[in-house]
Amino acid sequence: MQLGFISLPTIPRFTRNVNLLLAATAILAVSFFGVTALLKILYILRLGYGPEYVGLFSASGALGYMGMSLPSGWMGERWGMSRVMALGALTTTVGMVMLPLTEAMPLWAQMGWPIVSQIVQAGGYAMFSINFVPALMAATLPENRNSAYALSSTLRSCGTFLGTISGGLLPGLLAAMVGQGLDSPVPYRLGLWIGPVIAVLAIIPLLRIREQGTVAANVESVPTGGFPTLSVALLILFVSLSQAASATCQAFCNAYMDTELTLSPSTIGLIMGVGQFAAIFGPMVLPRMARLRGNGWTLLVITLGSGLSLTPLIFFPHWLGAGMGIVGTLILAAMWMPTLQVYQMEMIAPRWRSLAYGTVSMAMGLNFALISYGGGYVVAGLSYATLFGVGLLLSVGGAGLMGVLVRKPGLIAAVPPRPAVVAGD
Fold first, then answer.
1. Beta carbons within 8 Å of 179's beta carbon, 6+ residues apart
2. What is the number of alpha carbons within 13 Å of residue 64 lying toward its C-beta?
3. CATH assignment of 15-207+228-411, among 3.30.2010.10, 1.20.1250.20, 2.60.40.1120, 3.40.630.30
4. For labeling, which of 121, 201, 209, 306 is most exposed (least CB within 10 Å)?
5. Whether the Cβ atoms of residue 328 and residue 309 lie closer than 8 Å to each other
């Protein structure tokens, strides 16, 4: 179904395995990217930590994701992607349970406990996401692949929107119930328990996936050759630059609105929720954009727009400026990831997809860690505006690199789409 430039993918057109994968990613989005992502930073701040610790906290999650990126691909190939994704969802749930237990830990452990919980959460999510991308690639046909990845991003945005709005309302409701103020960690601690309750539900569809259909679904008769080192290296450089805008906002926008703009949790949740709601519709234009100009050109435009979206956060220190910047960044981030996934999967021969995606994801985790850790010190020593300015410049550099790759496609050895046979569904 199409509405002008917007292409609306529908779930019934996909196979059973695809539908189960999409259901799992939507459930995890409500919990991991919605309720927990909003409340955990506010909880950390209420425990008395400053921007340096927030940066370290966010960086530890990125390092946990990075550390599990390559092992997750290996585990998926050895034990089956659906099993490893289910184990990843369970591990993420355990990490979510750990965070609200921080105040119950001995005093000597309380400072490190949130870091450990963040590493466990992110490591578990790596097990899910690293296998999700090749599993979805294997379960789709070339003609509906862009639609499937776009729909996965749309469902992730829908889930994040629901979780963010709910997470923003929880502290006020719980504070009234327990007789605590919003400057106390108690309402945030209680709200954090909602995340793992939702996350554990994602294990159900993952255990119902037919492994044979996922692993053997997409057989492409193309020469594999050696590992595409140059292509992966160029992708890593592109990702390291283009990810900067969304990474700075993901790591520090909540803290910026809470400490710099002194907005209430419900207002922060509303702003983030509006952004996530708008992000639901962004990926719907991707299939048509990819057909018209290709995934490389689409990545160029998205990356440039993502960097420019930080401009209001730099020059307009007001809730409206924050809202404009966050909404733009979230919309384009929801479009960037599925486009990058398809772009990478189609340029890599099937034999190397898991290893290549794990390698690039490891680089993404390291890059996010560096931005998060270094960003905390930039904020403490300079300002949030300076940090967002750095993110803007790096993303513009990423757009420039993709412009070179689009003009010289020989640098990226793309694998042409081939007819696929979907088995076991």
1. none
2. 24
3. 1.20.1250.20
4. 201
5. yes
Q: Between the CA of residue 211 and those of 81, 82, 84, 138, 249, what are the distances in Å? A: 7, 6, 11, 11, 37
Domain segments of the chain as ranges: 15-207+228-411
Distance from C-alpha of 103 to C-alpha of 111, rounded to nearest angstrom: 10
Helix, strand, or coil (residue 272) = helix
The C-alpha atoms of residue 265 and residue 43 are separated, in whole angstroms, by: 11
Q: What is the pLDDT of residues 355-398, one digit of tens each?
A: 777 778 778 777 777 877 788 788 888 888 888 888 889 988 98
Dist. CA 397–CA 239, nearest whole Å: 11
pLDDT tens digits for range 84-143: 999 999 999 999 999 999 988 888 888 999 999 999 999 999 899 888 877 887 777 766
Torsion over CA of 174, 175, 176 and 182, rounded to 10 degrees? -140
Quick check: 214 and 287 in contact, CB under 8 A? no
Q: Cα–Cα distance between 327 and 425 in angstroms, integer?
A: 38
Give ∠ CA 159-161-163 in degrees, rounded to 5.
70
The residues that bridge with 6 in the sheet, in sequence order, are 3
